[in-house]
Amino acid sequence: MELLDGKKVSQEIIEELRLEILQRISEHKKIPHLAAVLVGHDGGSETYVASKVKHCEKIGFKSTLIRFEDSVSEEILLKEVQRLNEDDDVDGILVQLPIPKHIDVEKITEAISPVKDVDGFHPVNIGRMVKGLPAHVAATPYGIWLMLQRYKINTAGMHCVVIGRSDIVGKPISLLMAQNTQPGNATVTICHSRTKDLKAMTLQADILIAALGKAEFVKADMVKDGAIVIDVGITRLPDATKKSGYKIVGDVAFNEVAPKCCYITPVPGGVGLMTIASLMMNTMNACKMRTGN
Ligand code: NAD
Fold it and tell me: Which domains can be identified in the chain, with CATH numbers?
């Protein structure tokens, strides 16, 4: 069993981007600028946004954090997105999800200019990805793809089973794994909450991607010997021994599943860190697309 080490790979990507920024500075090229919009005070969202801003600083990107209270109206949020679309210095815009229920998340997503949509949630980017055209691919699926690429795992012809069909993980990673690229060229099965006999499906997986959001749901008896297991899940469980008061677990029961695997991602230290690295790559690409270099 070998760990797919998100910490190591994401650090490599961050370092490559940092060096690219030094090069861009010496060539007087534009420095990428990421604007993050955070609504409310959800603990998870605060942590994710703080980490994104910290990574921008590490690389040398500019970043701006715009905060609103939970009570902000849809109209004001839309106006802010429009302002960021029109701000020529801003290359990437992300609105941290979830946002309060009184705001239509689709309206906000579609208001972001597709060129600046570094989260890759805009229908234009999803459509372009489906067609195999250059696009901002959602950060988590792109992070998984990059991880497989960096470990030089030849996925062609493999059977990839994805548990979960969300717009931000399950659907896009299924498409990426099926497209004619390396990584890719896999035969993909998408499972979800209405799948009959999930275990019969997961036992066929050469690559199993768990993105259902249920702590330690995938047990050893659901995994084929020698499988590659990618754990996307992030669940906070109360843990009095931790300073934070909680521990993070994935969708896979790591200790019992890992010995059966050829490769497995840990949680934390796997897909989560790759998500941030790929967001940073999308931001760099957005800047290059906008400035033409
Ligand atoms: P979601 O709730 O939008 O979707 C979950 C999917 O799982 C649904 O399609 C549902 O049909 C399926 N599902 C639920 N129960 C199931 C069951 N018993 N059997 C089969 N399928 C089942 O979730 P999401 O936004 O895709 O996130 C999934 C998990 O990934 C969450 O834990 C989330 O926190 C995590 N996540 C992690 C990252 C990261 O960077 N690592 C990014 C996004 C999401």
Answer: 28-113 (3.40.50.10860), 139-272 (3.40.50.720)
